[in-house]
Amino acid sequence: MLKVCVALASLLLLTSCGPDASVSGGSVTGADRPDTVGTKMSPTLDAKWRGSMTIAPAAASPGQRIALRFPTNYVRGVAFSLAAWNGESWAVRYYLTSGRGSGSPAPQWWSVEDSEGRGWPDVGTVGPGPVYVMVPNIAPRGTYRLCTANARDQACELLTIGT
């Protein structure tokens, strides 16, 4: 009787962990599924960030200025992170800052490798924008995730570089 109970419990446990099972609030996809072992997932934006920021244009060239817009009452700073998709996860590659209007510094960027001793002003901004940032002129082609870097509630959107 004990062997039957253990076997039944094991079977129930295994069937609840199939390809459609939920792990940490998300579904198992890509390399976690037995039928896609060895394949790489494509980059997507987490649903929690959808609508938190828009980028115009959403596909840009290296060195191009892009406009960022936010919900009306969204509070943020002037810093942003630009993360590249490495085939499995997002990795921050660059930091960007937006200009704050006439007489303020122009938008800037620097690579993560060149971050020592760098930072950005602790300035709060509210409203829909637009604010402008520069796509790093050395950024390789690919899909990136652009996020606020110093906001209480992070906002993100996908950006394609290399149009």
Which SSEs are present, and which pair or pack?
Blueprint: H1 2-15, E1 22-23, E2 26-27, E3 54-56, E4 59-60, E5 65-69, E6 75-76, E7 79-85, E8 90-97, E9 108-111, E10 125-126, E11 131-134, E12 142-148, E13 156-161
What does this structure look like?
Mean pLDDT is 74; it is low at 1-39. 19% of the residues are buried. A hairpin with a 2-residue loop joins strand 1 and strand 2. By secondary structure, the chain is mostly beta strands. It has a six-stranded mixed sheet, with no helix packed on it. Strands 3-5-11 form a three-stranded antiparallel sheet, with no helix packed on it. It contains one helix and 13 strands; from the N terminus they run αβββββββββββββ. The longest helix has 14 residues, at 2-15. It has one helix at residues 2-15; strands at 22-23, 26-27, 54-56, 59-60, 65-69, 75-76, 79-85, 90-97, 108-111, 125-126, 131-134, 142-148, 156-161.
